[in-house]
Fold this protein.
Amino acid sequence: MRGLHPQGRRTYRRYYRCIEAIKSGAAHCPSKTLPALEIERVVVEEVRRLAEDRERLTRVLADAERLVAGELGELRKERSGLARDLERHHAELGRLAQSGITSADVALRIADLNERIAQGEARTQELNARSVELERQVIEPDEAAEVFAGFDAVWSNLIPREQARLLKLLIEVVHYDAANSSVAVTFRPSSIRAFMERVKTEAA
């Protein structure tokens, strides 16, 4: 929404609107538009609380670790299947090479097997790289507590656009309860490491 500065200059104020109101109309949401500054102030306080509330920080990290463990399990399953496929393809390729048969059908099959092997090996490398990346996301509470403790110093030196970008890394959704005018923040467990790295970079 746009407002008017007392001296006649234009000034812009940001607001948050209810998703249901945006999708279906104002009648479908009891909440009015909310000043972005007020909401963001609450969100920042929630981030600060992670530095002060060790138990809560540990819960957030545990949620992140569960997500990582789940994805690692899926990667291991896919990698195991690829290993079996590659073993089978290599075995068949070896048999065809030893057979001495040089028909067009055999040549086509050999080409197909080589392509499948190349694709399987490339995918295996992707899975290995992703596994290493995920394993890096497992965070010790002491490390997280140290980074979050320095959040205020970093935050105060960022321009609004950089502040918004930093919060977007960490915050998944902000819930506003119109009935009791309360705000609840859901953190994005999968981005805790990225958030911490960003804070470290800004603090350097």
